[in-house]
TrEMBL record:
Its main location: membrane. It is found in: Cell membrane. This is Amino acid permease. Keywords: Amino-acid transport, Cell membrane, Membrane, Transmembrane, Transmembrane helix, Transport. The chain crosses the membrane at residues 33-52, 58-77, 97-117, 137-159, 171-189, 217-237, 258-277, 297-318, 339-362, 374-394, 415-435, 441-460. Belongs to the amino acid-polyamine-organocation (APC) superfamily. Amino acid transporter (AAT) (TC 2.A.3.1) family. Residues 31-464 form the Amino acid permease/ SLC12A domain. InterPro entries: AA-permease/SLC12A_dom, Amino_acid_permease_CS. Pfam families: AA_permease. It is a multi-pass membrane protein.
């Protein structure tokens, strides 16, 4: 690449953030909580029970290893973000470093991921409301969707404020559980005080009670618990000070995982033997019950409700940005580029919210296998975003090392080799999904969606050649 081309790249990189039309309304406090909240979801509060029953105490090691890989993914994303902090980052980077078709696939796949996730989470949130109130689920689902939709249209600052408080609830619940467990272990209060011991981690059949193989099989469930951690990348175009805030948020990933996943599980499994946990039960609820704290069920229900609403809120936010990014690159309808006076993507957010409501209605009317298949696809589509991030970081690093692109201010440790390792790990998880009959359906859905996108891209390319051009932003 010539020096003139390098300067052009530099100029384009610096111009993008100011030319997107968004308002930089997300401050450091909100970005930090969005980053924290993205790593804590229903996968921990509800799904961990199945993982514990399958792997025993070794699930702690599974979360630690998977958390390390997540950190590598986030540092790879951070390197790209500091090179070019744009909203809709995944599809933009795919378009620039892999090709227009990759950007098309990534944008529409990540959009679908959040639409499907929004449908399932708002449905779940409505179900959680029946714990306290006898109201039809469709009423709660409608109210939640409309409220979150309205909040996302008012301003990005309000979205960030909602995410801040949703995340605060989740963080407070986990820290509270850890402190209670510490008290049980040291002071011995509650019904579990006489039996609580760190030795539960190795005395109940050993650290690997069902063997290393079963622990490996839980990696897919563990990785799914981290889906949406990459959401902080979508906020890049609307952060007040992305060059400072985003690296700080990404660098907190290790301690977040160490405290909220590894730390919480060590405490819970020390207070209550792993044999007391079963699939379909929240480990937090079981722990509260064993400690003689029946109010714990209501507390966890409230926390899971906020986790579901947080996911819906994130879905509203990210889908509108993804559709606008596609439209700006002629890979989606032009009307998705429209912004409100407050800088939010009106048409894209409205379209996605409408689909979420339709999906909720379909789920209520026909809660059958077809919908389960669509939901299972969300897992593989979320991992696709991670794969794209890693491949783009590898290609960017090689170009920047050759002097063809400016060097990022936030280089990922381990460089290309760290990303290659993370890709290999994700590949292993996908293989494990193929072995597990319950998770295999995700792999069946992916080729179907890929074929749909390939046909759509060919039609779009024929009607509008600009769709096959590299990024013009």
């Amino acid at each position: 690449m010539t020096s003139a081309r390098v300067e052009k790249e530099r100029a384009g990189t610096e111009a993008v953030p100011d030319g997107e039309g968004y308002q930089r309304g997300l401050g450091a406090r909100q970005i930090q909580m969005i980053a924290i909240g993205g790593a804590i979801g229903t996968g921990l509060f509800l799904g961990a029970g199945k993982s514990i029953s399958k792997a025993g105490p070794s699930i702690i090691l599974a979360y630690a290893v998977a958390g390390f890989v997540i950190f590598l993914i986030m540092r790879a994303l951070g390197e790209l973000l500091m090179y070019r902090p744009v909203s809709g980052s995944f599809s933009e980077y795919a378009r620039q470093f892999i090709g227009p078709f990759a950007g098309f696939v990534t944008g529409w796949t990540y959009w679908l991921f959040w639409v499907v996730t929004g449908i399932t989470e708002v449905t779940a949130a409505a179900a959680y409301m029946t714990y306290w109130f006898e109201i039809p689920q469709w009423v709660s689902a409608l109210v939640f969707t409309v409220v979150l939709y309205g909040a996302n249209l008012i301003s990005v600052k309000l979205f960030g404020e909602l995410e801040f408080w949703f995340s605060m609830v989740k963080v407070t619940a986990i820290i509270g559980m850890i402190l209670i467990c510490v008290g049980v272990l040291t002071i011995g209060f509650s019904d579990a005080g006489d039996t609580a011991s760190v030795s539960h981690l190795w005395n109940e059949g050993g650290f690997f009670p069902h063997g290393v193989g079963n622990t490996l099989m839980t990696l897919q469930m563990v990785m799914f618990a981290f889906l949406a951690v990459e959401l902080v990348g979508v906020t890049a175009g609307e952060s007040k000070d992305p060059k400072t805030v985003l690296p700080r948020a990404i660098n907190t990933v290790p301690w977040r995982i160490a405290v909220f996943y590894v730390g919480a599980l060590i405490m819970i499994l020390s207070v209550v033997p792993w044999t007391a946990f079963h699939a379909g039960e929240s480990p937090f609820v079981v722990a509260f019950q064993k400690m003689g704290l029946p109010a714990g069920a209501g507390i966890v229900n409230f926390v899971v409700l906020t986790a579901a609403l947080s996911s819906c809120n994130s879905g509203m936010y990210s889908t509108g940005r993804m559709l606008r990014d596609l439209a700006l690159n002629s890979q989606g309808p032009r009307f998705f580029t429209r912004l409100t006076s407050s800088g939010t993507p009106l048409i894209g957010t409205t379209f996605s919210a409408a689909l979420m409501l339709v999906g909720v209605w379909i789920n209520y009317q026909w809660p059958g296998k077809a919908f389960d298949y669509v939901v299972s696809f969300a897992t593989i589509s979320g991992m696709w975003a991670w794969i794209v991030i890693l491949v783009c970081q590898i290609r960017y690093r090689r170009k920047s090392d050759r002097g063809e692109l400016p060097v990022s201010e936030f280089r990922a440790p381990g460089g290309v080799w760290a990303s290659v390792f993370a890709l290999a790990f994700i590949g292993m998880v996908i293989v494990l999904m193929g072995i597990d009959k319950d998770a295999r359906v995700s792999l069946y859905c992916a080729p179907v969606w890929g074929l749909v996108l390939a046909v759509a891209y060919l039609v779009l390319k024929r009607r509008n050649p600009e769709a096959a051009a590299f990024s013009r932003r």
